[in-house]
Amino acid sequence: MDNINLINRLSSEHNLSDSEFLKLITTSEYDAELFLAADKTRRENYKAAVYIRGLIEFTNYCKNDCFYCGIRCGNKKAVRYRLTRDDILMCCAEGYSLGFRTFVLQGGEDPYYTDDIMCEIVSSIRKNYPDCAITLSVGEKTRETYEKYFEAGANRYLLRHETALDEHYKKLHPNNMSLENRKKCLFELKKIGFQVGSGFMVGSPYQKPDNILADLRFLQELSPDMIGIGPYISHEDTPFKDKKSGSLELTIRLIAILRLMFPYALIPSTTALGTIHPEGRELGLKAGANVVMPNLSPVKVRKLYTLYDNKICTGEEAAQGNVKEH
Ligand code: SF4
Q: Is the pLDDT at 321 greater than 90, yes or no?
């Protein structure tokens, strides 16, 4: 089948066989047609809209030790911080005045934020900003905890599965973490009524094309509202410090494939993409992404939330960003 037919079929049927997906993933041969088709699909569904989400990174403490992450508990060099409820409300106030109507509270799995503390934060935001969406991204919790968050007023939840095959998951995470639980959390969040976002790292250590195929198949099973992917970027204070980072090309190719598989999904063009290439986020938008998440965290803590090295937008300019709508 020639390039055009393959892309046309993905555009209309939103699916391909395993071998066809592997072909698309592993070669740049289809990129030009793929990007054009993804951009067309995005425009058909969303016109020129790019959705802006205000990101508040409120704690860089984490009880987990994922091998790829700069704020893993095993990194004793990380300078840790937590934001109080009032700090977070100030970020929201600033964001609201700038026009943000979605706040994304992201943090490590930090036991300091008990259910009571977290729900107090969420319900305060809900009370002050009834017209805003509240997204949480705070990792794996029990169903009861997720229900409490939902009742307090949170309506969206981001939890990347990171990799969908157990064998690969075990190479990226310590033994006390399990892919099974990660997936269980995602399905529970959906059942509770959250709009759910998931996604994976591109070019993570030991990742093979088959892993990416499994990621696409898992996303089909989950059918999330949001899909966040970004290149793996190594961090100097992790066990993976010498591993190669993921590539711009493959990340953008996968954004385009995801846009054609999930025409209505919200797909961010991530900070990680902007970190590996000066125009990474713009290129992501041109390949089908439709969300950007400028940083609303207080300037003094932005440099401390370092999941990977050389993260961009840690200065004063972050919330204003430099993204052009197109
Ligand atoms: S990836 Fe998430 S869960 Fe893992 S150590 Fe980093 S912040 Fe914690």
A: no
Q: Specify whether the CB–CB gap between 252 and 246 falls below 8 A.
A: no
Nearest to 168 by CA among 129, 115, 214: 214
Which residue type does 172 have? Answer: L
pLDDT number for residue 126: 98
Q: Where are the alpha helices (DSSP H) in the chain?
A: 3-13, 18-26, 31-46, 85-98, 115-128, 143-152, 166-172, 179-192, 209-222, 248-261, 271-276, 280-286, 299-302
- Both structure tokens of 38: 């993804």
Question: Which residues are registered as beta bridge partners of 55?
Answer: 104, 295
Report pLDDT for 320: 41
Residue in 56, 62, 126, 103 with CA at minimum distance from that of residue 84? 56
Domains of the chain listed by start with CATH number: 19-302 (3.20.20.70)
More confident residue, 64 or 272: 64
Query: For residue 108, which atom of ligand 1 is closest to its CA?
Result: 7
- Distance CA(286)–CA(106), nearest Å, equals 26
**315 has a pLDDT exceeding 60:** no
Cβ of 109 closer than 6 Å to ligand 1, yes or no, is yes
Q: How is residue 82 written in tokens?
A: 């937590």
Q: Are 162 and 172 in contact (CB under 8 A)?
A: yes
CB of 62 within 6 A of ligand 1: the answer is yes
Residue 136, strand partner residues: 105, 157
The Cα 244–Cα 195 span in angstroms is 33
Which residues pair with residue 195 across a beta bridge?
156
Convert the pLDDT of each residue in 49-93 to its tens digit: 999 999 999 999 999 999 999 999 999 999 999 999 999 999 999
Backbone angles phi, psi at 189, to 5 degrees: -60, -40
Residue 246 CB less than 6 A away from ligand 1: no
Nearest atom within ligand 1 for CA of residue 140: 3
